[in-house]
């Protein structure tokens, strides 16, 4: 049953329509549009109707699908929003919040990035997408040690801007995917809350500011901009990517993985080595991809001492600028593309995909690795990326920010399955393979809870369709561990009516 407010708005728009034409009764999208247009004040230089798209608009599907990064949700059967507001001004955000609340519509906030399971543009009920891609300015501090970044900016845009502004002598430590949103990496913020108020760190309060850093900001507010800290980088960094299929230099793959587990989280803080396990010709392939903040001579000294089994040699080390290393991580060969390609917001090729995550706190034994290699060979569509922690991650208390996965974790796992052929049977098989590998890893990963990484969204670990505390705790403790209850407390204070909610949002306590 519609609320009286919705009925009144629909009747008003309907009567207006009848007086002017014989058109069909207004859609919920047109009611929403009339609501946001009618609000005052608005920015006369940026009228909201110019940035609002309903399904009747020929640009609607283009705007919607531009930031769909998973072809599983790029189809005619997926439920579509009743409208998209591609906000270009803070008043657009405020109007969207006001009218979504008035019409009892759920709000989905989208600012680019992975969103592997599509929670920023999917819902089972009527909803509006607030798309932030127009808000992507980057303003650098005078000393080039900070920058204010609007929430629609991508990491590629930040990386490119930082490198060009600072003559390649500063960088920003974040993800390897240029298309990822900038959210989460910040030292200050400007937001719009459920009441439509624009707040900064002081006015929002330190508890909400704490929650935004790693707690999933979309559970609490709409973020307008982040203030990030930039870091100095050397003139040259060194990268490498070496593979072992069966063995490398006389050392079998399993022994290389054993050694990697021993040193990856303890090696020099300037060196990062990711291990990826996949299959090739019925054999497990281990890829060791690394970056060192320094020259190749110093890197080889460290590797000879700490990881001689890998046999890294001079010809496999490539020195380049830090900004060029971003392309290297995308598997773009050096010199084959300008760094400006990281400004491309729309991927040239889309894929069907599934992602899951885990944390490992104890080295996996040789017997365990044998079992893992066996299950990978039985599920050849799945790869595992092992990302080492340690270093600075281990020095920050787990309660410093809402992100809790710090000391005690040796590495994080991303399970990845990609496929390129449409069809339910193909999708079912690839999803099943991912789940089989995930289940086989149970003995070797964190327990009570089995931890998960928020940015690798995975609806399999729990959802809150009814937005209850009990449902939310199932996935909440996996993403946030002991920080979950504090996040619930913050949520109950800043958004007691649970306006900012979605399938894996922070819930309010049951008493609410």
Q: Count all strands and give the number.
A: 20
Assign the CATH architecture of the largest domain: 3-Layer(aba) Sandwich
Assign the CATH class of the largest domain.
Answer: Alpha Beta
Q: Percent of residues in helical segments?
A: 25-40%
Oligomer: single chain
User: Number of helical runs?
Assistant: 15
- Terminal CA distance reads 22 Å
GO molecular function, one term: FAD binding
Cofactor: FAD
Main location: secreted
Keywords: Cell wall, Disulfide bond, FAD, Flavoprotein, Glycoprotein, Nucleotide-binding, Oxidoreductase, Secreted, Signal
What's the structural blueprint in terms of helices and strands?
Elements: H1 4-20, H2 28-38, E1 52-53, H3 60-66, E2 83-86, H4 90-102, E3 106-110, E4 127-131, E5 138-140, E6 146-150, H5 155-165, E7 170-171, E8 188-192, E9 198-199, H6 201-204, H7 206-212, E10 222-229, E11 231-232, E12 237-245, E13 247-248, E14 251-252, H8 253-263, E15 271-280, E16 283-292, H9 296-306, E17 318-320, H10 322-329, E18 352-360, H11 366-378, E19 382-388, H12 392-395, E20 411-419, H13 424-440, H14 469-480, H15 484-494
Parallel strand pairs: 2-4, 3-4
Antiparallel strand pairs: 1-2, 5-6, 6-10, 7-11, 8-9, 8-10, 12-16, 12-17, 13-14, 15-16, 15-19, 18-20, 19-20
Give a concise summary:
By secondary structure, the protein is α+β, with helices and mostly antiparallel strands.
């Amino acid at each position: 049953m519609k609320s009286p407010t919705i009925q009144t708005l629909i009747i008003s728009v309907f009567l207006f329509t009848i007086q002017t034409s014989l058109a069909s009764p207004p859609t919920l999208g047109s009611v929403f549009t009339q609501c946001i247009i009618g609000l005052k004040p608005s920015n006369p230089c940026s009228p909201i109707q110019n940035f609002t798209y309903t399904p009747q608009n020929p640009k609607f599907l283009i705007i919607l699908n531009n930031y769909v990064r998973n072809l599983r949700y790029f189809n005619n059967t997926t439920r579509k929003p009743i409208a998209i507001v591609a906000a270009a001004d803070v008043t657009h955000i405020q109007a969207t919040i006001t009218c979504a609340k008035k019409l009892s519509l759920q709000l989905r906030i989208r600012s680019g990035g992975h969103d592997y399971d599509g929670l920023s543009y999917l819902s089972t009920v009527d909803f509006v997408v607030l798309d932030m891609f127009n808000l992507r300015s980057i303003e650098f501090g005078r000393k080039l040690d900070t920058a204010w970044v609007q929430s629609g900016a991508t990491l590629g845009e930040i990386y490119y801007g930082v490198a060009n502004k600072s003559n390649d002598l500063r960088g920003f430590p974040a993800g390897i995917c240029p298309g990822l949103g900038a959210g989460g990496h910040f030292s200050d913020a400007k937001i719009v809350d459920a009441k439509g108020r624009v707040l900064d760190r002081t006015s929002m309060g330190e508890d909400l500011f704490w929650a935004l850093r790693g707690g999933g900001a979309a559970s609490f507010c709409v973020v307008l901009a982040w203030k990030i800290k930039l870091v100095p980088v050397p003139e040259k960094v060194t990268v490498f990517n070496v593979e072992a299929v069966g063995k490398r230099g006389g050392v079998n793959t399993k022994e290389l993985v054993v050694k990697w587990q021993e040193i990856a989280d303890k090696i020099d803080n300037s060196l990062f080595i990711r291990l990826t396990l996949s299959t090739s010709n019925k054999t497990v392939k281990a890829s060791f991809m690394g970056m060192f903040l320094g020259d190749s001579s110093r890197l080889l000294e460290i590797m000879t001492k700490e990881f001689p089994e890998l046999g890294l040699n001079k010809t496999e080390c490539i020195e380049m600028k830090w900004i060029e290393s971003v392309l290297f991580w995308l598997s773009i060969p050096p010199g084959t593309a300008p760094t400006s390609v990281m400004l491309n917001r729309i991927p040239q090729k889309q894929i069907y995909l599934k992602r899951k995550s885990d944390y490992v706190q104890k080295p996996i034994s040789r017997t365990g690795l044998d079992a893992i290699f066996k299950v990978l060979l039985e599920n050849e569509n799945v790869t595992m990326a092992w990302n080492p922690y340690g270093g600075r991650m281990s020095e920050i208390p787990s309660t410093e920010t809402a992100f809790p996965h710090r000391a005690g974790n040796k590495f994080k796992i991303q399970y990845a399955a990609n496929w390129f052929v449409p069809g339910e049977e193909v999708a079912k098989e690839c999803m099943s393979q991912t789940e089989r590998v995930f289940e086989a890893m149970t003995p070797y990963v964190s327990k009570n809870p089995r931890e998960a990484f928020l940015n690798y969204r995975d609806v399999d670990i729990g959802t809150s369709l009814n937005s209850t505390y009990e449902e939310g705790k199932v996935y909440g403790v996996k993403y946030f561990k002991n920080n979950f209850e504090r996040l619930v407390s913050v949520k109950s204070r800043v958004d007691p009516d649970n306006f900012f909610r979605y399938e894996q949002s922070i819930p309010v306590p049951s008493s609410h």
